Amino acid sequence: AKKQGKDRYEIFEPAMQAVFQAGLQMEADLRRAVVRHEFELRYQPIVHLKTGEITGLEALVRWQHPERGIIPPLDFIPLAEETGMIVPIGEWVLREACRQAARWNERRDGKPLSVSVNMSAVQLEQADLPEVVASALSNSGLPATSLVIELTESLLVDHRPSTLRQLEQIKSLGVRLAIDDFGTGYSSLAYLRRFPIDIIKIDKSFVDDVGDVPAAAALTLGIIQLGQALHLSTIAEGIEDAEQLSELTDGNCELGQGYYFAEPLNDVDMGELLFPPS
Ligand code: C2E
Ligand code: CA
Ligand code: CA
Ligand code: CA
Questions:
Q1: Which of 72, 123, 245, 273 has the lowest CB atom count within 10 Å?
Q2: Would you state the pLDDT for residue 107?
Q3: How many CB atoms lie within 10 A of CB 67?
Q4: Cβ–Cβ contacts within 10 Å for residue 162, how many?
């Protein structure tokens, strides 16, 4: 046991020790954040490209750290997934997004506004996820048809046998499913057949080059046509300029989001965008 202890000590050189300590600190901070509800949502509009109308929002989580300020999701979601803390965080995101979207829907005349929520594989492994979704809908009063759950390709590629059943249960509530970052995985076409998907989100890496690189344009148009053939909606992610917008609109992409329209906004700013003060 002594020898093992010595070897261990040698592995942890000062620099690594610091990294290790920082990781532990982050984990402890994240646990506290879950208890104290240190999370906030931003909302990015999803726009109908031909009319410019806002048809939906994507909810994106932020961590409001008491000392470090706003921490973006890519800096804490992986740790939250490893530690299982994504389950309570994700449930909070879902309930909060439904609650806010229901309030905005009440003030909106005409077409309903949908809200899209990102979901991790770890959440889908929870047997009670369909009940959690149903309860978020009934507590908020948001119609199921106004909720979209976004799944990544990797989630579907490495899926468990129970994943399909879970997704079918959620779909039977009336909730729609989107594939995020479409085109970046390696078996995209196979799981479009296997899973009950409604919406394809074309990854930003295609949209970035759509006006400049013929191959990117051809692939993007191909994805849009694939969506049409399968009666799926297509959302282009990360639209930043007018050139990208016109290429996508000409290619009959239905919906889009990106900094060209709006960055993710807090609830106050999003409310003003949806209901401009007259
Ligand atoms: P995502 O789902 O692909 O979300 C799109 C990301 O692109 C967001 O980053 C958004 O702010 C950013 N974005 C939108 N338009 C543009 C644009 O025109 N240009 C550029 N450069 N970026 C744009 P964000 O908010 O930092 O989120 C990063 C990722 O974190 C998300 O990627 C998603 O995978 C994950 N995430 C965010 N919120 C949640 C959540 O509540 N649960 C889970 N499990 N993951 C989340
Ligand atoms: Ca997403
Ligand atoms: Ca995405
Ligand atoms: Ca360009």
A1: 72
A2: 92
A3: 5
A4: 12
